[in-house]
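Anyone up for a design puzzle?
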């Protein structure tokens, strides 16, 4: 199977490499073209523009930072729309809002192409290991065509029906994840300032009802101040913002998510946006704990 791949950031690079490892022929494009070289070394071909990739490949996957990047790659000059058409499929796996996804879907369908949104749950390591959870929606025929690729990229894929449902599901999941990260950060800070060992807190949490892979993975590195980015904080804040907007549209009160969003915004204002989202701990330590914000 030949696929195009647009966007070689933390996730896109790992996902495209995984497809190559599993025998897919992959043509890559990245806004900063130099980043394609690592994939070329693994056997990828390079397309000079998104349009060139779509012209060459029947199926093209995108993994881009946010709604504005997702729209730009489709609608701008040399974008996906210039070459999409009958018999071609476009699969956007970026985390965006439902409105962005619907806009892309309508434009692609108008040109005769097929569209699936397929954001993923799971971070850098699951992307490297092909263990993502894929939250797809849109054209069912294209979804079925993509199953061999989804089987390589993920451990499970859900087909959620009409366009927008994948985007919304992803935002709900990440809203919960961001709030949990804030709760963990506050707990570590409270333990520390009240004379308890934060490491012992992690050990206690791990044995009780709230144990989870995220606390297990992130907790120890947070205590070491290691925020090497797997999931950049600026993207988590984008997801909180988009989830809150979904809450606004549906008149759902989300005080916990709103407070968490404020902490992520504060972290961004302190220049922590490119670090891992667990760096929000630095803000919560600064708010009352022993650490420096
Ligand atoms: N990291 C993670 O753990 C996870 C991330 N996600 C989601 O996946 C998406 C990608 O995340 P991640 O790989 O971490 O992000 P990165 O910031 O590492 O990569 C972002 C990618 O988007 C490209 N890009 C940004 N702006 C534009 C633009 N205007 N036009 C064209 N390309 C652009 C970047 O190109 P360039 O190299 O030129 O900057 C890069 O390829 C995001 O939506 C994120 O929320 C989902 C699950 C997990
Ligand atoms: O979007 C981030 C993730 O870990 O999932």
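Challenge accepted. My sequence:
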């Amino acid at each position: 199977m030949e696929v195009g791949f647009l966007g070689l950031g933390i996730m896109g690079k790992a996902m495209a490499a995984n497809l190559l490892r599993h025998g897919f022929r992959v043509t890559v494009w990245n806004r900063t073209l130099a980043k394609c070289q690592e994939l070329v070394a693994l056997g990828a071909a390079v397309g000079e523009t998104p349009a060139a990739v779509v012209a060459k490949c029947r199926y093209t996957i995108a993994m881009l930072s946010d709604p504005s990047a997702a729209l730009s790659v489709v609608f701008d000059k040399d974008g996906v729309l210039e070459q999409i058409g009958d018999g071609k499929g476009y699969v956007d796996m970026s985390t965006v809002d439902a409105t962005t996804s619907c806009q892309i879907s309508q434009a692609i369908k108008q040109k005769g192409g097929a569209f699936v949104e397929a954001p993923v749950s799971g971070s850098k390591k699951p992307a490297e290991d092909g263990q993502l959870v894929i939250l797809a929606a849109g054209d069912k025929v294209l979804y079925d065509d993509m199953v061999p690729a989804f089987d390589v990229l993920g451990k499970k894929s859900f087909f959620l029906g009409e366009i927008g449902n994948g985007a919304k599901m992803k935002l709900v999941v990440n809203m919960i994840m961001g709030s949990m990260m804030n709760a963990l950060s506050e707990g570590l800070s409270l333990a520390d300032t009240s004379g308890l060992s934060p490491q012992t807190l992690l050990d206690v949490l791990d044995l009780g009802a709230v144990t989870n892979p995220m606390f297990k993975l992130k907790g120890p590195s947070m205590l070491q101040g290691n925020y090497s980015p797997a999931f950049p904080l600026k993207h988590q804040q984008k997801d909180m913002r988009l989830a809150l907007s979904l809450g606004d549209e549906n008149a759902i009160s989300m005080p916990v998510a709103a407070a968490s969003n404020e902490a992520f915004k504060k972290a961004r204002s302190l220049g922590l946006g490119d670090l891992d989202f667990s760096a929000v701990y630095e803000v919560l330590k600064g708010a009352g704990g022993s650490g420096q914000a």
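A detail worth pointing out: Residues 2-162 form a domain with the Rossmann fold fold (CATH 3.40.50.720).
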